Each structure stands twice: as C-alpha cells, then as structure tokens.
Fold:
Amino acid sequence: MKKKSLIAMMLLGGVIFTACEKADDPIESQIDSKIETITKFQEVSNQFVEVELRSLDNFDRKPGWWKKLLKVVGADLTGGLGGALIGSAVPGLGTGVGAIIGGAGASMTAGSTLSAPPGGGGGANIDNVYDYVGEEHVNILLNGLTVDYEANFDGTELKNANYLEYARNWLVENEVFSMEEVEGYEEAYLVENLNQALEHDGKEMVLVIESFYELELLTADEYDILSAYYTAFEASTSFDSFKEYSIEAEAVITDSDFETEQKALFLSMMSTTRHDLNYWKDLEE
Structure:
C-alpha cells in the first residue's frame, strides 16, 4: 500500500466529517447552482481553448519558448497547489499562507539557475479578493532570486530552513499575515510541497490535477474546475490572451455558491497562475 502524503492524512478528517453530514446537505437548488457554475466555467474554458487552437491551426505549432515557459510555471503551481491544500487542512493556517510559501518555494527551486526577470505589474485582477496570493508569490520570488539569493541558496540548491524563515518574515514585515499565522506552515510541509513539484516536474498541469485527484487530495468539483482551467492554461499562446480568459473565469467563481474554502483554493491558484506567468514571460525566447 502506498504511503499517504501529509496532505492526504490531514484531509482525511474533513472527508469523514463531510460523509457523516450528508443528511444536512444544502437544499437541492444550491446543488443545482453548483452544477450550473461548473458547466458555465467549462464552457468559458472550452471557448478559450477553441480560439487558441484555431489561432495556431494545430497544437504542434506553438512556439517552443512558450511551451518551456508553461513547464516552468507548472512547477511553481504544483508547489502552490500542494501548499494551498495544506493551508486549508491545518487549523488556523489558511489557504493563502500555504499557497504563497509552498508556491514561491517551488518557484525558487525551479528558477535557481535562471536569470530572474525584472518583475513588474500587469498580472493583477483587482476583482479577485485573493489576488494578493499571486502578488506576494512574485514578490517573494523576485527578491529571493536577487537581493536575498545567497541567504536562500547553497550554490543552486534551496536551503529549506533559510527559505522558510525568509518567506515567513517577508509576509509578516509586509503586513500580509501575522507571525502566528505563518508559523503554522512548518518545514515538513515545505518539503512535501517541494517533493510534489519535483515528482511532477515537466508534466502538464492537467496531469498534475489528475494526479492530485487520484490521490484524493481534490474533490470531484475541485477537479472539474481546476482541470478545465489548466486545460485552458496549456492551450494558451500568450499571456495577454490567457489573462483575459482567467479574469472571466475568476468572475464565474466569485459569483458562485461554492464554499468559502473552495473559492479560496480556486481564486488563490488562479491569481498565482496569472502573476507567475506574467513574471516568467520575460524569459529570453
């Protein structure tokens, strides 16, 4: 039998609790509303994919540098997703803390041998209440690969304890979270997130989402939304077109009846995807 990940063990309690509360499920209209949201989200995503594929005539004509870029960003997002799930499972921690620290750690590991782009604006969506997650992801990444590089790396290898202290302090000093909030994200969680990113290195994000679902780290609804979103991500051909799609997709989630925790997961990941893609898009073609 395969050993369950830290995330799976922490989520187990939530799965059992949900099963025991079936008798108190929301009314039928709320269930129908969630189904309608997933359907609408998939329609928006499918329309974007169709437009992007038509612009290329066929998938194989996508520029090689853009394919490489999507893989770099994908490694970052795997760490961010694992961190977000840990954040939602650990009492008092929160999706945002886990997504930022786990995602930025994976980003710094993947980007340790790359020349850091200058950063800058252009990736924001002010209508996403979790947009700070992607913004701080990039802030930690940019500073960590430039000003604080030597403190965080031994050669090109990330020093986990040093990075964790750096990321925590950054979030506290910039008044994003309190020290009490960020201390809940432990080094063991960081190692778990970095291992997930390494394990899925080079895989398309849709396959990462499928893997997390098969490991029972995502619910069926979460799988449906994130799979559609990252299918669009993999089909994208430019940052501008993807950002436009993402903002439209995020509005569907914002206006939905999904639970607060699920909205936090979706919108945090979408924010991170936008900001991270915007950050790395200036890599040399």
The longest strand covers residues 153-154. Confidence is low (pLDDT under 50) at residues 14-23. Residues 33-280 form one domain. The chain is about 70% helix and 0% strand.
